[in-house]
Write a structure and sequence with these properties.
Chains A, B: Its cofactor is Mg(2+). Chains A, B: It is an enzyme of class 2 (transferase). Chains A, B: This is Farnesyl diphosphate synthase. Two copies of one chain form a homodimer. By secondary structure, chain A is an all-alpha fold. Chain A has one domain: Farnesyl Diphosphate Synthase, CATH 1.10.600.10. In chain A, 73% of the residues lie in helices and 1% in strands. In chain A, strands 1-2 form a two-stranded antiparallel sheet. In chain A, a hairpin with a 2-residue loop joins strand 1 and strand 2. In chain A, helix 1 crosses helix 4, helix 2 crosses helix 6 and helix 3 packs across helix 9. Chain A is globular, with a radius of gyration of 18 Å. Chain A starts with a helix and ends with a helix. Chains A and B meet through helix 2, helix 6, helix 7 and helix 8 of A and helix 2, helix 6, helix 7 and helix 8 of B.
């Protein structure tokens, strides 16, 4: 399997679909739509929507049923980046090699573009859930996974503790709380929501959740490692910015080599947890490897 | 009918219920919950949740079914105030006579508390909708009303255009766009969602929508008037702040007396539109009058 090509095909498929779900740039609130689209179009790996759709297909569901939810989770991820980059938060000027949203549109519009993306994500999911009355309960359950993952017991919790931990020495428990919530939660949410849309049974959902938790934490650890060893052009953000902010990370707590080992172990466990899907899980297994191997 | 007492009773009833729906202040993300609660507890008229619950009962529904949605709409309203007060937006230090959220918790936490409230509003509505599978479609429709009202074709659209109109002379169409979206949309959303939860038929929903549109615009016009003639202690915000920002308003476009007449006419039409509910509509009619008469 040529994973790079597979991943790129899925990314292109998703991005084509996403275009249909972005509000048209017109009306009095034109600038808002421009700002939303600017960050949505800025690229990135599209990891969450790809995981969501893949999870739907893994359990035998139809990917098309999952598209509005895939767009919604990418919108939520994008809003979180816009707000995270603001001067009052991480104060970043660059994201994926482009000026951050507030650098282009100003802080006020950037805040509202973030708010808009979060709200619009729910609008999309609700609209899709309303389409077929009989199926609506299933979609409501999938929406619940995404809402929880993105919320004050998920992603936002991670961001708050991350913000409060700047320039502080934190222990492993706090670091794990940040990672689990800031990054893993949405990966878990994506995979669980996708599986529910695809009609997963209890056992399948459990296995997918184990996979999700492992690659979620692994992903963040590798991000921390890349923040030290990556180069700016590959990541499109200022390398070492976490170090500059004195953030505690896996490498700063355990060292580089040990961190790589921890990530490797998490990924192996992830792959094992979906072995029951046999060939159908092939892409997700490759993807798990890609997460650790991607840049170093 | 002693409206003031009725209104106060409903406000107290709502606020007691709201306490049960605010996340407990505990865990690593304690500060987040404190910031969310700080602004939720800051009071205000609780107009949107009261309208929502009243609309449910107007069409013969059970108010208790509407409570989580009433809490959700107040959370969305509150988040919009937190973000609106930020330095990059209206830059207000006072709200309802208390320091604004970012003055107490800092800008970063204020942004996240706003995000948290918006997301949590959806979490509450989804959780409630999942409770009874058979009823879930109805709640999904009610959630749709609130999501649209709060979103990029509703409240957020109004905020963006409002922000962009500062220090600019704008025409009546633009002003109406701002009013309709920034304030009316959520009032319409509250009343329509409440009616749907209560089981309204098409005709009832239509009449309630007319009522909602009229009091929504009337409410904003009166707010503009109060910004000129009100006194600071009554409003708990800096009087004349709209004027300072050179915002176009009904009074600045039409003069005070003509603006009062326009508001009065809107309210009369609102009351007529719910006459078919006879005695059951009494409170909402009083409330419509209260909106124009409240402070001047």
């Amino acid at each position: 399997m040529n994973l790079k090509k597979e991943l790129n095909d899925k990314k292109e498929y998703f991005e084509k679909e996403l275009e249909n779900y972005i509000p048209k740039i017109q009306g009095y609130q034109k600038t808002l739509f421009e700002a939303m689209k600017y960050s949505l179009d800025a690229g990135g790996k599209r990891l969450r929507p790809i995981l969501l759709m893949e999870s739907t297909s893994l359990v035998g569901g139809n990917i098309e049923d999952a598209i509005p939810f895939a767009c919604a989770i990418e919108m939520i991820h994008t809003y979180s980046l816009i707000h995270d980059d603001l001067p009052a938060m991480d104060d970043d000027d660059l994201r994926r090699g482009k000026p951050t949203n507030h650098k282009v549109f100003g802080e006020g519009i950037a805040i509202l573009a973030g708010d808009g993306l979060l709200n619009y994500a729910f609008e999309l999911m609700i609209k899709h859930s309303l389409k077929y009355e009989k199926e609506s309960y299933k979609y409501l359950k999938a929406m619940n996974e995404i809402a929880k993952a993105a919320g004050v017991y998920g992603m936002i919790a991670g961001q708050v503790v991350d913000l409060e931990s700047e320039n502080k020495k934190i222990d492993k428990e706090t670091l794990d709380f940040i990672h689990t919530n800031k990054t893993s939660a949405m990966i878990v949410g994506a995979l669980r929501a996708g599986a529910i849309i695809g009609g997963a049974d209890e056992k399948q959902l459990e296995n997918i959740t184990t996979y999700a938790n492992n690659i979620g934490l692994g992903f963040q650890i590798v991000d921390d490692i890349l923040d030290i060893v990556g180069d700016e052009s590959k990541l499109g953000k200022n390398v070492g910015s976490d170090l500059e902010n004195n953030k505690s990370t896996y490498p700063s707590l355990f060292g580089l080599e040990e961190s790589k080992k921890i990530a490797k172990k998490l990924i192996d466990d992830a792959k094992n947890s979906i072995s029951s899907f046999e060939d159908k899980g092939e892409f997700l297994k490759y993807l798990a490897d890609y997460i650790v191997d991607r840049e170093y």
